[in-house]
UniProtKB/TrEMBL annotation:
It is an enzyme of class 2 (transferase). This is Ribose 1,5-bisphosphate phosphokinase PhnN. It catalyses: alpha-D-ribose 1,5-bisphosphate + ATP = 5-phospho-alpha-D-ribose 1-diphosphate + ADP. Its EC number is 2.7.4.23.
Length: 188
């Protein structure tokens, strides 16, 4: 039986990378693979534990067909390695840190994917984005407005989506993620 693609999305600052790091061991014990993205952000940059590459190298990898999914957002390029297709074919569930904006393309390629939307209170999100100091205050306010609209649109269009609030303790969010995946017979 083929595995399931679990597509984690949420705004920058919602804690997707923290959630993945905190849940990694428990998910691995359930034979769920967590994919490390390829990203054109410096390896020294604060943020996710991704494989950092130059834009030129990213373009080479993309031309070689190395990505199952790829997109650009906020001046960066992101790729999900093609090895997920083999993992899925071998029956492993695979969790990826995806993109809200790329969700239609991901659904087109993987029609049965499950979407996990990580949300966070807007005030908490604002504080997290400000503390990272990657963007101007104006850019952060634009992100917050876009986030509010996107979350509303997605929840209306996909009532089966798994929504997790990460405004509180990370341990609680990890526990809820594991419970929801188990109920859905994914990573179980």
């Amino acid at each position: 039986m083929a595995g399931r693609l679990i597509y984690l999305i949420g705004p920058s600052g919602s804690g997707k990378d923290s959630l993945l790091d905190a849940a990694r061991e428990a998910l691995a014990a359930r034979d769920c693979r967590i994919v490390r993205r390829v990203i054109t952000r410096s390896a020294e940059a604060k943020g996710e534990a991704a494989q950092a590459v130059s834009v030129e190298r990213f373009d080479e990898l993309q031309a070689q067909g190395a990505f199952a999914l790829s997109w650009s957002a906020n001046g960066l390029h992101y790729g999900i390695p093609k090895e997920i297709d083999q993992w899925l074919a071998d029956g492993h569930d695979v969790l990826v840190n995806g993109s809200r904006g790329h969700l239609p393309q991901a659904r087109s390629r993987y029609p049965s994917l499950w979407v996990v939307l990580l949300t966070v209170d807007q005030a908490v999100l604002r504080d997290r984005l400000l503390s990272r100091a990657r963007e101007s205050a104006e850019d952060i306010e634009t992100r917050l407005a876009r986030n509010a609209q996107f979350a509303d649109d997605l929840q209306v269009s996909d009532p089966s989506l798994i929504v997790l609030d990460n405004s509180g303790a990370l341990e609680q969010t990890v526990a809820r993620l594991l419970q929801r995946l188990a109920r859905a017979h994914a990573c179980a």
